[in-house]
Amino acid sequence: MLSAKQLKYIRSLRMKKFRLSRQEFIIEGTKLLSEAIRSDIPLTEIFVTQQWLTRNDSLLTGLHYKVITDQEMKTLSQLHTPPGILAIAPIVHHEADVKQLKGKTIVALDGINDPGNLGSIIRSADWFGVAHIFYSPDTVDPYNSKVVQASMGSIFRVPLTETPLDILCHELTQHAFSITGATLEGENVFEAGLKSTSNVLVVGSESHGIGEYLYPFLQNQITIPSYSDSGQTDSLNAAIATSIILAAFKMKN
């Protein structure tokens, strides 16, 4: 049985201000738990239902956990159908040394406000070997439950750092990174002469794009051309666009 204090604490982590003050966030589901364990994330607490434990006890070998009732899990869960496993994980801070990122691809996200988009971008970054993701202060919190779920565990592997992107881009320019912005006015990504290393891909939100304050730092602008006969689609989902561009970068290797 969970105490009222425990219930209150766990539920408070649904809110960004408490995640930040307590430096912890919630993960739910067997997939995310498996990925956290595989990534050596030191889980603070693990809560399971008896039904989940009966089917998955081997996953928790050597780990401390607490069995709670189905009703308690329902109270804690943020999912429509509680998966029977919920854990508290620490927020890991990644202080990036730009010099150590030389020769690698990084992503800078400006004002991405859709949780599903951000989670999918993190997942794609993991797939394409992105060394680091930087995000502007007005980007949705990466530890929002919807972002965490959409990342499918990649949030445990891709370093994430919040920072003012103009300051970051200035520093990257000093270290000879090639800064490329995804814009509607850019060159065809399939025809552009992209570098294969030391790349920075800047992606903005679907509604506003990259902020004007970053345009002076963009050495290249690229776009994904539409091949639709209807001509009715005005843009791609930011996560899909990011994946296509990262693939184009890899094709240069």
Order of helices and strands: HHEHEHEHEEHEHEHEEEH
Main sheet: strands, sense, barrel: 6 strands, parallel
CATH architecture of the largest domain: 3-Layer(aba) Sandwich
What top-tier CATH class of the largest domain fits best? Alpha Beta
- Rounded mean pLDDT is 93
Structurally, the number of domains stands at: 2
Number of helical regions: 9
Describe the strand arrangement of the main beta sheet, using strand numbers. 7-6-5-9-8-10
Shape: elongated
Q: What kind of assembly state do the chains in view correspond to?
A: single chain
Overall number of strands: 10
Assign the CATH topology of the largest domain.
Alpha/beta knot
Our measurement of the CA-to-CA distance between the termini, rounded to an integer number of angstroms, reads 55 Å
Global Rg = 20 Å
| SS-derived structural category | alpha/beta
CATH 4th-level superfamily of the largest domain: SPOUT methyltransferase, trefoil knot domain
In the predicted model, the low-confidence regions spanning at least 5 consecutive residues are: none
Query: Could you tell me the strand content as a percent range?
Result: 15-25%
Residues in helix, %: 25-40%
